[in-house]
């Protein structure tokens, strides 16, 4: 799938003010930054930065990937969602 890169997060699909703020806190200020970091690492960094909070996978991990692909998070293919969950779990176990 093609990645859509732009200069900032404002206006990107699935990225509201709260997610944008959380991304900024981990040093992500553009979709290019997010692509470079990877959505899995960004999701895990957000979780690690806020250990007292729970971040649902669909609202964060899927939303981040959807932003890169310019798709609503619910439109991501099932296989991609499965792979993202697996990567997030594998990296959190290490």
UniProtKB/TrEMBL annotation:
Residues 7-87 form the TfoX C-terminal domain. This is DNA transformation protein. The lineage of its organism: Bacteria, Pseudomonadati, Bacteroidota, Chitinophagia, Chitinophagales. It comes from the Bacteria. Transmembrane segments: none annotated. InterPro entries: TfoX-like, TfoX_C. It holds the Pfam family TfoX_C. Signal peptide: none annotated.
